[in-house]
């Protein structure tokens, strides 16, 4: 019995790519000049479509990372689009020669993002280490010896500690917080992760302290006379505080006299706030 062949999305995409005819140097130059001078989106689209087989060839170099090939091609196409926008046809080289850096960069960044739940490479040096170590470990699955790590550190001009740290991160597996700690499965890692949020007792204590502080400040301000209250409100409790000169003009006094009035009000507030809570409540 003949069963129908199972064809996935990537296989169908490859079939379509095989139908695309490559551009001649002359035709590519003509399209690139037209887009460079006019910015015509249809011309850019034609350049991108005709280079899809090129993106597929680059993406296939990364199949050892076991990520969906369509996703790798998709990222490579984004890199190709960026390259088309920046391509200068008057430099004399082909678009593929210019675009390969962009295509590889977008594919590699995608691999870095997807390789672990926690980011492995956040700097250019870490990304270089990631790919070099993956290549070396692909040649030999065993842990790299000290000599190989030392030579890699020299080649990439990085510290040996950085190479050792990246290798350890590559060897470590992601661990689910819901994974059981024991065979019975009743206790998970999530159950033993400390909660950084304050507990209810701490929340209640903080609210009580804020309430007490607010009451104490309210009572302290009520001990000031009308002018002192006005100064404190205008100088410290408004979004646009008044200057001492403005206070002086309001009360028809000098700036120095306004400063003395402010200092007297502040001394009263400090004394009231430092007093025991019982005394504040009685006032």
UniProtKB/TrEMBL annotation:
Source domain of life: Bacteria
- Domain named RNA polymerase sigma-70: residues: 71-84, 243-269
Pfam families per record: Sigma70_r2, Sigma70_r4
Keyword terms, alphabetized: DNA-binding, Sigma factor, Transcription, Transcription regulation
One of the GO BP terms on file: DNA-templated transcription initiation
A GO molecular-function term, please? DNA binding
The reply on keyword Transcription regulation is yes
- What does the function comment of this entry state? Sigma factors are initiation factors that promote the attachment of RNA polymerase to specific initiation sites and are then released.
The similarity comment for this entry is: Belongs to the sigma-70 factor family.
The cross-references to PANTHER family, in alphabetical order and at most eight, read: RNA POLYMERASE SIGMA FACTOR RPOH (PTHR30376:SF3), SIGMA FACTOR RPOH HEAT SHOCK RELATED (PTHR30376)
Recorded protein name is: RNA polymerase sigma factor
Q: What is the lineage of its organism?
A: Bacteria, Pseudomonadati, Thermodesulfobacteriota, Desulfomonilia, Desulfomonilales
